[in-house]
Design goal:
The complex is a heterodimer.
Chain A (H helix, E strand, L loop, with lengths): L6 H12 L26 E6 L3 E3 L14 E4 L7 E3 L7 H5 L7 H9 L5 E2 L2 E4 L7 H18 L4 E5 L2
Parallel strand pairs in A: 1-5, 1-6, 1-7
Antiparallel strand pairs in A: 2-4, 3-6
Chain B lengths: L1 H14 L3 E6 L2 H7 L3 E6 L12 H12 L1 H4 L5 E8 L5 H4 L19 H17 L1
Helix pairs in contact in B: 1-2
Classes of the chains: A alpha/beta, B alpha/beta.
């Protein structure tokens, strides 16, 4: 059985080879918070948060230096208007088909098929390669949480890269 | 760090009363962040929700991942999705080429020059009207 890649070990090695000090990964040991699903998915309004650096043409793209901003992308967006700006993954396939990191067409289809109730008006995207976990917690997390609450979603799907 | 950032968001959003599910392709980083619910897809980074231009596969992946909203009942558990990349060769080289140190530009990195022009035009229009 092929094993999953050990990214933390490999990234730690890369940093050591470059002479950078070791990155302090966030390790959560306590039990995560829990909100039970209150109704079937077919009646739920779904929000999406994706960290692959997706923006729609006309919006300001992400930069690469601890960018803690995020974009609201209308769920009626034309898929061909979607772009990516990210430094930490190979964007070739995402630029061919954004659905590999931002499953917009897939989710719209699942609503049509009745698997999901509805989608939020906007999905939220950011560039997840943010070194400062402190800035993520203090600046990004509260604003994304507020935005999801304002969208009145029942469930949120999170898609990192 | 993407997976880490998303894990941090998931915990806070869940605490605010919204059920969350994190997808992910870096199992160790997902485990470290311990989000409430997760679904692991063993694909190379950059394909968290499937392969390009394969809508049927993308649909199947999302259906199985979303099923985790109902089947995962223990906080912090991860559903292992059964999909495999064509071969496992990518695993030998993933993240092994060292950090190529793309300059961490602090200005917007547009995919195309046209995007830059459009964004600057809408910012200028907003400056006048907003």
């Amino acid at each position: 059985m092929p094993q999953p890649v050990e990214y933390i070990a490999r990234i730690t090695d890369n940093y050591a080879k470059l002479g950078y000090k070791a990155y302090q990964w966030v390790k959560s040991t306590d039990a995560p918070p829990w909100t039970p699903l209150r109704k079937p998915l077919s009646q739920c309004r779904l929000g999406l948060v994706a960290s692959g650096g997706i923006y729609a043409t006309g919006q300001v793209a992400f930069h690469f230096k601890d960018d803690v901003s995020f974009r609201a992308i209308a769920t009626t967006v034309k898929t061909s208007d979607l772009r990516t700006a990210h430094f930490a993954y190979d964007q070739t396939d995402a630029r061919k088909d954004p659905n590999v990191v931002f499953p917009i067409d897939t989710l719209r289809r699942l609503v049509k098929e009745g698997v999901l109730g509805s989608l939020a008006e906007n999905f939220f995207t950011f560039m997840g390669g943010i070194y400062s976990s402190r800035r993520v917690v203090e600046e990004l997390v509260p604003r994304i949480t507020e935005s999801l609450l304002a969208e009145k979603v029942d469930v949120a799907l999170l898609v990192p890269v | 760090m993407c997976h880490q950032s998303v894990g941090l968001i998931a915990r806070q959003v869940e605490a605010a009363g919204i059920s969350t599910l994190c997808m992910g392709s870096a199992l160790d980083i997902l485990k470290a962040g311990k989000p409430p619910r997760a679904a692991f897809l063993d694909y190379p980074l950059g394909h968290t929700t499937g392969k390009p231009n394969q809508p049927e596969l993308q649909r199947e992946i999302l259906i199985q991942a979303l099923e985790g909203f109902t089947s995962l009942t223990v906080p912090g558990s991860i559903k292992m999705l059964p999909f495999r990349w064509d071969d496992e060769d990518w695993k030998r080289t993933a993240m092994m080429d060292g950090d190529t140190r793309v300059t961490r530009y602090d200005t917007p990195q547009y995919q195309t020059e046209e995007d830059r022009i459009r964004a600057e035009a809408s910012a200028a229009a907003c400056g006048k009207e907003c």
